[in-house]
């Protein structure tokens, strides 16, 4: 019948469009079968390679002196506003240092807080020459604090074998440097144990 010819022509054209890679003979052979399985040929997408932003290496940072503080900038008075900002940051972090605040909660917050701008004092040390050093933390590295004292002297104090104290609104906290050998960015994700052996 005429209708079946139209159907056959339509199916043939449909298969030709759906499977452009298949020859006419192969399509005709498929039409003689009872079942027709259509194959899908997706267009290949060209993947765009993302360019990785490469930072400076440690050697390049040293050569460029990125983290060095110029001698004319090594003055205690310059960094006092930084300390005021740090105090406000800690108050906001601890929801206000109220008298009824739990010391464990404040201590836990301080352990993960950024200490740049805090005034610290070395209270205990295996090296007596470090005891009594007080100043604002300008830089924190994995193993050392760089502290500017009131005498405008930049001191590099190792964390290992030293105990530091910091005071804010009457709350005094002690930092055992030997348990604090982490970069500032790593401390925020670190889980500190509430109890443990404390040794200089």
Automatic annotation (TrEMBL):
<comment type="similarity">
    <text>Belongs to the eukaryotic/archaeal RNase P protein component 1 family.</text>
</comment>
<dbReference type="GO" id="GO:0033204">
    <property type="term" value="F:ribonuclease P RNA binding"/>
</dbReference>
<dbReference type="Pfam" id="PF01868">
    <property type="entry name" value="RNase_P-MRP_p29"/>
</dbReference>
<dbReference type="InterPro" id="IPR036980">
    <property type="entry name" value="RNase_P/MRP_Rpp29_sf"/>
</dbReference>
<dbReference type="InterPro" id="IPR002730">
    <property type="entry name" value="Rpp29/RNP1"/>
</dbReference>
<comment type="function">
    <text>Component of ribonuclease P, a ribonucleoprotein complex that generates mature tRNA molecules by cleaving their 5'-ends.</text>
</comment>
<comment type="subunit">
    <text>Component of nuclear RNase P and RNase MRP ribonucleoproteins. RNase P consists of a catalytic RNA moiety and 10 different protein chains; POP1, POP4, POP5, POP7, RPP14, RPP21, RPP25, RPP30, RPP38 and RPP40. Within the RNase P complex, POP1, POP7 and RPP25 form the 'finger' subcomplex, POP5, RPP14, RPP40 and homodimeric RPP30 form the 'palm' subcomplex, and RPP21, POP4 and RPP38 form the 'wrist' subcomplex. All subunits of the RNase P complex interact with the catalytic RNA. Several subunits of RNase P are also part of the RNase MRP complex.</text>
</comment>
<dbReference type="GO" id="GO:0005730">
    <property type="term" value="C:nucleolus"/>
</dbReference>
<dbReference type="GO" id="GO:0006364">
    <property type="term" value="P:rRNA processing"/>
</dbReference>
<keyword id="KW-0539">Nucleus</keyword>
<dbReference type="InterPro" id="IPR016848">
    <property type="entry name" value="RNase_P/MRP_Rpp29-subunit"/>
</dbReference>
<protein>
    <recommendedName>
        <fullName>Ribonuclease P protein subunit p29</fullName>
    </recommendedName>
</protein>
<dbReference type="GO" id="GO:0030677">
    <property type="term" value="C:ribonuclease P complex"/>
</dbReference>
<keyword id="KW-0597">Phosphoprotein</keyword>
<keyword id="KW-0819">tRNA processing</keyword>
<dbReference type="GO" id="GO:0000172">
    <property type="term" value="C:ribonuclease MRP complex"/>
</dbReference>
<dbReference type="InterPro" id="IPR023534">
    <property type="entry name" value="Rof/RNase_P-like"/>
</dbReference>
<dbReference type="GO" id="GO:0001682">
    <property type="term" value="P:tRNA 5'-leader removal"/>
</dbReference>
């Amino acid at each position: 019948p005429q209708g079946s010819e139209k159907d056959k022509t339509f199916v043939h054209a449909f298969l030709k469009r759906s499977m452009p890679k298949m020859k006419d003979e192969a399509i005709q052979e498929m039409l003689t079968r009872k079942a027709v399985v259509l194959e899908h040929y997706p267009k290949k997408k060209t993947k765009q390679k993302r360019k990785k932003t490469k930072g400076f290496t440690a050697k390049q940072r040293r050569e460029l002196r990125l983290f060095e503080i110029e001698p004319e900038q090594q003055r205690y008075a310059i960094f006092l506003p930084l300390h005021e900002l740090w105090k406000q940051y800690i108050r906001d972090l601890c929801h206000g240092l109220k008298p009824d605040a739990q010391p464990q909660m404040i201590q836990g917050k301080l352990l993960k807080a950024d200490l740049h701008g805090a005034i610290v004092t070395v209270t205990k040390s295996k090296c007596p020459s470090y005891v009594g050093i007080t100043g604002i933390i300008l830089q924190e590295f994995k193993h050392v604090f760089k502290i500017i004292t009131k005498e405008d002297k930049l001191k590099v104090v190792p964390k290992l074998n030293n105990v530091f104290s910091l005071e804010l609104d009457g709350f005094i906290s002690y930092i055992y440097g030997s348990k604090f050998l982490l970069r500032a960015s790593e401390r925020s994700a670190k889980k500190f144990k509430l109890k443990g052996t404390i040794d200089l």
